[in-house]
Amino acid sequence: MSREIALDEKWLGRLPVVAGGAAALVLVGWLWLSRPPAMTLRVPGTDRPPGMEVVPSEKPFLAGKVIPGAGVAADLPGAWPGFRGAALDGIVGPGSPLVADWQASPPKPLWSVDLGEGYAGAAVRDGRVYVFDYDQEKKQDALRCLSLGDGREIWRFAYPVSVKRNHGMSRTVPTLGGGYVVGMGPKCHVICLDATRGDLKWGLDLVSDFGATVPQWYAGQCPLIEGDRVLLAPGGPDALVMAVSLETGEVIWKTPNPDEWKMTHASLVPVEFGGVRQYVCCASRGVVGVAADDGRRLWSTTDWKISIATVPTPVVVGNGRIFFSGGYNAGCLMLQLKQQGESIVPEVLWKLGARTFGATQQTPILHGDHLYGVRPDGAMVCLGLDGTVVWDSGPDVNLGLGPYLITGDQLLAMDDDGLLRLMAASPAGYSLKGESRVLEGRESWAPLCLVGDRLLARDLTRMVCLQLATQTP
Fold first, then answer.
1. Rounded to whole angstroms, how far apart are CA atoms 22 and 31?
2. What is the pLDDT of residue 467?
3. Domain boundaries, the chain
4. Do 268 and 310 contact (CB within 8 A), yes or no?
5. Of the candidates 185, 119, 130, the residue with the CA atom closest to the CA atom of residue 445
6. Residue 281: what are its φ and ψ, rounded to 5°?
C-alpha cells in the first residue's frame, strides 16, 4: 500500500468525527444567534411619553462655553426681570406710560434678530435682553444676552443637547435676580449665569438629579427667584417643589411628593395667606400650596387638573382667592383658601365651562377688580371676580394663542400672526384703539415684554424690538 493511499484511508476514517464536530459548531452558533435578548433592569424614572427621548444624565451644561459678541449694553432705563414682569402680574409698573394714537404714530421697528424655533420670551435689565434659544444647526441650548439698543449679541452661553422639533423647542423666560440670570432649557436643564459676563455659576439637571419628567412639548416652567433662593417645581419622586441657593445651587428644602404628581408647563406663584408666605404649584394631578420657609405642604386639591397640558400660571386675586384657567375644555375655576384651626382648606367658589372662559396658553391678568384673558375661541374677555363675563371682543377678533400685557389702562394684545392690537383695559366695554402688524411670521406666542417705550415681541423664529410712541398717564 502506498503512503498516499494510507494517508487517504486515515483521513477518511476521521471524516465522521470532523463532520460531527462541524455539526456541533453549527448547532452552537444557531443557539447563540437565536437566544432571547438579555434582560435589563427597569430603572424608575426613565419612562417617557411617546416621542420623548430619555434625557442623558451627563449634565451637558458642564461642557457649555461663553461665546462673546460685539454687542454693548444700552444706556436705557427700566426692567422686565422675568416671566410676567417685576410683580409677576403681566402689568408694567406704576406710572407706566400710555400708548399714543397709532394712526399718527404706529409702532416703529428698531431691530430684529433670528431665533431657533420656539416661543421663549425675553427678560430685560440694565440695557440687556436675555432670551433662551436653541441652535438647531449646532444642536445647542443657548441663553443669549443682547443689547436692548440695537439687538447685537453681547454674549451667549451654549451647551450641547439634542432637541427634536415638537411644536418649537425653547419656551421659557429667564429670570433675573441679584447679579445672576437663571433659565430652564427645553429638557429641564437649569443654569445660573453671571448676568453681566455669562459665566456658568451652577447648573441642575432636574431629570437626572431629581427624577423630573420632561413635559410634553418640553419645559414651559419659568424659574422663580425670591431673595437668595430659586424656586422650582421638578415634580420628582421626593421633590414636588424645591428651593435652591441662588449663589450655589445647593438644595435648601424639598417638598415630599407621595402622590407622584408630575411637572407641568405652569410656573410657581407666591401668595400670602394667614400670615404665611407660600407657593402655589399646578402639578399633573392637582394643585398644592407649600410653605416658603421649609417647603412643607400646607394644602392640596384635585379640583383643578388638566389631562393634556396645564399651561397658564395661577392668578392670585386677593383675600385667599386664586384663579385657575386652562385649555383643552378645562374652563376656569376660582379657589378660596380658608383657615380651619391649624389647617388651610381650599374650597371651590365657582367654576365656568370653556365656552364661557378658559385660557389655553397665556396667563390672564388681574387689573383692578377684573380679569382679562383670551378665551379658547380667540376673543379677549373681561371677567368679573364673581365669574360674570362683563364683555368680550366679539367674533371679529381672534387672538388665537397670542400674548398680552397691560400698561396704564391699556391692553397690548397680539394674535398668532403678529397683528398687535391696542385695547382699553376697562370694564366699561370693549374698545379697540389701534392695530399694527409688527411680525410677518406665524405662531407669535411668546410673552410680550415692555420696558420704557420698547416692546419686545416674537414669532416662531424671529424677535423684534419696537418703539412705541407714548404719553404721560
1. 14
2. 96
3. 60-471
4. no
5. 119
6. -120, 120
Give the whole-angstrom CA distance, residue 420 versus residue 410.
13
Write out the DSSP string of 273-295.
ETTEEEEEEEETTEEEEEETTT-
Cα 368 to its chain centre, rounded Å, is 27
Lookup result for grid cell 410657581: 268
The torsion angle over the Cα atoms of residues 434, 435, 436 and 440, rounded to 10 degrees, is 170
Hey, what long-range contacts does 116-119 have (CB within 8 A, 24 or more apart)? 116/169, 116/170, 116/461, 117/165, 117/168, 117/169, 117/460, 117/461, 118/168, 118/169, 118/170, 118/171, 118/186, 118/446, 118/460, 119/168, 119/170, 119/171, 119/443, 119/445, 119/446, 119/458, 119/460
What DSSP assignment string belongs to 445-466? -SPPEEETTEEEEE-SSEEEEE
429 in Cβ contact with 391 (< 8 Å): yes
Grid coordinates representing 76?
436705557
Question: Residue 13: what are its φ and ψ, rounded to 5°?
Answer: -70, -25
pLDDT digits (tens, 9 = 90+) for 385-432: 999 999 999 999 999 999 999 999 999 999 999 999 999 999 999 999
> Is the alpha carbon torsion for 59, 62, 68, 74 positive or negative?
positive
Cα(189)–Cα(206) distance, integer angstroms:
6
pLDDT of 26 above 70: no
Residues 20-32 as b/e (b if ≥16 CB within 10 A, e otherwise) read eeeeeeeeeeeee
CA distance 322 to 417: 31
Superfamily of domain 60-471: YVTN repeat-like/Quinoprotein amine dehydrogenase (2.130.10.10)
Is the dihedral angle over the CA atoms 72, 74, 78, 80 positive or is it negative? negative
Distance of alpha carbon 77 from alpha carbon 73, whole angstroms = 11
Cα end-to-end distance, the chain, whole Å:
124
CA distance linking residue 289 with residue 97, whole number of Å: 36
**Helix (H) / strand (E) containing 417:** none
Q: Are 303 and 348 a contacting pair, CB within 8 Å?
A: yes
* pTM, entire model: 0.87
**Confidence grade of residue 472 (pLDDT, cut at 50, 70, 90):** confident
The pLDDT score that the predictor gives to residue 97 is 84
The CA-based angle 361-428-86, given to 5 degrees, is 45
How crowded is residue 194: how many other Cβ atoms within 10 Å of its Cβ?
15
* Spatial CB neighbours of 4, under 8 Å, sequence gap ≥ 6: none
Q: How many helices (H) and strands (E) does the chain have?
A: 2, 35
